[in-house]
Amino acid sequence: MKPHNPDLVIGDDGLARPIWAVNDPQLRNYYDTEWGLPVCDEQGVFERLCLEGFQAGLSWRLILQKRDNFRAAYYNFDPDLVAQMEGIEHLLNDERLIRNRLKLQAVLKNAQATIAMREHGGLAEFIWSFQPDETPLPEVMADVPTSSPESIAMAKELKKRGFSFVGSTICFALMEAIGIVDTHLVGSWRRGSSGVWPC
């Protein structure tokens, strides 16, 4: 049985999900258990910001496949440990990672910038300060924005503070991933599940 919305599919469990989260088990699990739920700790926000940077130009499925490898390479995204790394040359030879020099180096730079932000409330508090007054209400995938005034402002301020790979699209994807906005399609079983926004 298919719902009226062409971008939502009823799964074998009777729950409606967007098309992208239906067929691939890893994407489905990510959608069902993680995407859009609030993340408010420094390490969690730092990891997701870095992973969104790695995703630029690539598929999120690929990032999920390599996430454990990234966690191993970057000390579980502990900013203090990452900031002490002497370089990324050894990572460029690691076939388990995305071997893009600029992206790999950005994690070290972003760790240093994250540590510097502790004097001003910290990364998580800063990122969450860009929560808008209302969230999108997308009916179909075409309604889901890829940036917002808040993500544009966030990207600008992060760059001022020394972060890399933090464009407005990456920042908006981060906002979606950690619950700052809710872009679950109206009618999806996950709509409103973050507790941050009403259905």
UniProtKB/TrEMBL annotation:
The keyword Nucleotide-binding does not apply. Keywords: Glycosidase, Hydrolase. Gene3D superfamilies: Hypothetical protein, domain 2 (1.10.340.30). The keyword Ligase does not apply. It comes from the Bacteria. It is an enzyme of class 3 (hydrolase). GO terms for molecular function: DNA-3-methyladenine glycosylase activity. InterPro entries: Adenine_glyco (IPR005019), DNA-3mA_glycosylase (IPR052891), DNA_glycosylase (IPR011257). Its EC number is 3.2.2.20. This is DNA-3-methyladenine glycosylase I. It comes from Corynebacterium breve.
